[in-house]
Amino acid sequence: MSEQSFHLVCPHCRATNRVPAARLSAAPKCGKCGQPLLTASPHELNAQTANKVIQKNDVLTIVDFWASWCQPCIMMAPEFKSAASQLPQVVFVKVQTDKYEQAAAPYNIRSLPTMVAFRNGKEVARQSGALPSHQIIQWVQSLQS
Ligand SMILES: [Zn+2]
């Protein structure tokens, strides 16, 4: 337990970092580019970063699949951001499916918005439809532990 650590992919430069569990709550920075690994507001992933972040992150990673034409997606954006700021040890990221179709293709997204939770590269849960921040938080907390 004392030496437990997690892999965290830098959303900025895609370097995989190894972060001791104890450092997760101390705003860890990327060893390569120096930028924060855990951002308070959800990072927008592109086709290159999406798969790597999803596959390599050991920590709970919530991906909001959205599209620019999707009104409920636009409405949920500030709720998702608010949830992210309240759960700093969970990775919250976004994939714009109408811009990066290939990034979303492997995950079989049938409706928007859909939030998919991943851990160790595996899907652990998904939630379709827009939710207010407190329900997003409840859902994410139910997946922790
Ligand atoms: Zn980096």
The percentage helix is 25-40%
User: How many DSSP H or I helices?
Assistant: 4
Percentage of residues in DSSP E strands: 25-35%
Chemical compounds bound to the protein: zinc ion
Structural class: alpha/beta
CATH class: Alpha Beta
CATH homologous superfamily classification = Glutaredoxin
Strand order of the largest sheet: 3-5-4-6-7
Structural summary, described in words:
The chain is of the alpha/beta class. The protein has a single domain (38-143), classed as Glutaredoxin (3-Layer(aba) Sandwich), CATH 3.40.30. The protein has helices at residues 47-56, 71-86, 101-104, 133-143, and strands at 5-9, 16-20, 43-45, 61-66, 91-96, 114-119, 122-128. The strands form 2 sheets. It has a 5-stranded mixed β-sheet, with helices on both faces. The chain has a two-stranded antiparallel sheet with strand order 1-2. Strand 4 (61-66), helix 2 and strand 5 (91-96) form a beta-alpha-beta unit. The two termini are 14 Å apart. The structure holds zinc ion (ZN). Residues 10, 12-13, 15, 30, 32-33, 35 line the site of zinc ion.
Care to give the gist of this entry?
With 145 residues, the protein is an alpha/beta fold.
Write the layout of secondary structure elements.
Layout: E1 5-9, E2 16-20, E3 43-45, H1 47-56, E4 61-66, H2 71-86, E5 91-96, H3 101-104, E6 114-119, E7 122-128, H4 133-143
Parallel strand pairs: 3-5, 4-5
Antiparallel strand pairs: 1-2, 4-6, 6-7
Helix pairs in contact: 2-4
The structure holds zinc ion (ZN).
Residues 10, 12-13, 15, 30, 32-33, 35 line the site of zinc ion (ZN).
